[in-house]
Amino acid sequence: MVVGIHGILGSPHAEVAETVAETRAASVVLAVGLSYETPRETLDIFVERLREILLDQPRIYPEDLYVGLRGFGASSIDIELMFHLRVCSYGSQIEAQHAVVIDIIALADELGVEFALPKRTVQVSSPANLIAPVADGAEAAAS
């Protein structure tokens, strides 16, 4: 039996057909930066638990996701998450991403890891080297 689009839409399965037609895959890449003070064992646990978080999300395609250490950032050890969401609109994409981000924050809190904040260390020479001494007579001559 061949059923055209009108036959499907007129049937009790119209809602299912409409949902299937509107569902799309949205690719998402998230970066998470952890403090350089994070111990290696904790990094390994954090990455593994991130993978579990993604696998627990109902809108994520489980067969095509990646989580791992990406490299060294200016202020952080960088972790990258790449996954695809099964969504029907941009709003549902943001809702799904929200759920992932909230779970990541909860995991960081549970493990006691800190997200890296941009830092800059500035070294200054001693104040005596920054200001040239002025002779008593030179100050009077300058006036």
How would you describe the overall organization of this protein?
- The structure is a single chain.
- This protein is α+β, with helices and mostly antiparallel strands and 143 residues long.
- Helix content is 45%, strand content 20%.
- A hairpin with a 4-residue loop joins strand 2 and strand 3.
- Helix 3 (40-56) runs antiparallel to helix 4 (90-111).
- The protein is elongated and about 85 Å long.
- The protein starts with a helix and ends with a helix.
- Mean pLDDT is 82; it is low at 1-11.
Q: Give unreliable regions as ranges.
A: 1-11
How much is the average pLDDT? Answer: 82
Strands ordered across the widest β-sheet: 1-3-2
Major sheet size, sense and barrel closure = 3 strands, antiparallel
- Give the total of beta strands: 3
Strand portion: 15-25%
Distance between the amino and carboxyl termini: 104 Å
